[in-house]
Amino acid sequence: MRSRLATWIAAAPPYPANARDLATVRVLGLDLPFRASVATIAIALLMLLDFHGRIDDVVRLAIDALGEPAGNGVADWKRIQSIGRLVVEGAAPLLLVVLVMRDRPSRYGLRLGDWRAGIAVALAGVLVMTPIVLILVLRSPGFGAFYAPQAAAPLDVVVTTALEVVPAEFFFRGFLLFALLRAIGPIALVIATLPFAFMHLGKPELETLSTLVGGFLYGWLDWRTGSVLWSGLAHTCILALAVVTSGAAAAAGLLPA
Q1: Nearest to 174 by CA among 99, 96, 238
Q2: Tell me, what's the pLDDT at 244?
Q3: Strand locations in the chain (E)
Q4: Are 101 and 35 in contact (CB under 8 A)?
Q5: Residue 62 has what pLDDT?
Q6: pLDDT tens for residues 172-208?
Q7: Which residues face 27 on adjacent strands?
Q8: In whole angstroms, what is the distance from residue 4 CA to residue 29 CA?
Q9: Which of 94, 106, 196, 219 sits CB 3.0–4.6 Å from 172 for a disulfide?
């Protein structure tokens, strides 16, 4: 039984590097793998722009041009911000893959992959995380308070979360992970976890620390299935659950002081 499980865990599709994956560009005497370097630099640049608020600035300009949303409050801003993330973390790297790296998006996780394994692991992850999220909301100071202001109708929360999380999965574990994987091998799963963790700075401490484990597990799932869709599904469900339950707990006066 243990042998069968170990075999299943390691049953990832092959990721052979072709000539273009290994093609290099010389910079200051260094021969750098072109595709992996483009992905790494793009991730770093977009994260730095996001840290300094430039992405939100663009979103605000769009709001000024189109007018304020019909509603108001944190939840409405979060939806607009998530659309901005969809463009920056989804469309921008996709264009880089097609136009600069001249490759197929399917090689970067935009496919169904091993959907049976993907569905099974994603659902198992959601089931395991559901009681953990509930405990954090009800027992951890700051966790529920952080997410409660984003609460809205459950369907709205799911849509907003998916607009932000699914592109983020492609950003970190499609665009970056698969580019590095073909250049440097499995250590790419560890490296791709680091910028994902740094993107959580400012969130509750326990959640930030947990991203080192969670990010690696999401990366393993994408490596195992060849797709970012299933980590995107699991991540969306877990984060949406945190927002909805935090809002409900706040409304009932159940959040810890």
Answers
A1: 96
A2: 96
A3: 24-27, 30-33
A4: yes
A5: 63
A6: 999 999 999 999 999 999 999 999 999 888 888 889 9
A7: 30
A8: 47
A9: 196
Contacts 24+ apart (CB under 8 A), 236-239: 236/158, 236/161, 236/162, 236/165, 236/166, 237/122, 237/126, 238/125, 238/126, 238/129, 238/133, 239/161, 239/165
Report the DSSP beta bridge partners of residue 32.
25
Amino acid 204 reads P
**Are the beta carbons of 227 and 13 closer than 8 angstroms?**
no
Helices (H), 173-228: 177-184, 187-198, 205-225
DSSP-based three-state secondary structure for 26: strand
Amino acid at 170: F
Helix (H, G, I), strand (E, B) or coil at 2: helix
Which amino acid does the sequence have at 185?
Answer: G
In tens, the pLDDT along 20-62 reads 999 999 999 999 999 999 999 999 998 888 888 777 777 777 6
The SS3 assignment for 31 reads strand
Give the Cα separation of 24 and 33 in Å (integer).
4
Per-residue tokens: 98: 């097609």
* Mean pLDDT (the chain, rounded): 90
Do residues 223 and 108 lie in contact, with contact meaning Cβ atoms separated by under 8 Å? Answer: no
Mean pLDDT of 224-235: 97
Q: For residue 199, what are its two tokens? A: 């993107």
- Provide the b/e sequence for 198-221 (b: ≥16 CB within 10 Å): ebbeeebeebeebbeebbbbbbbb
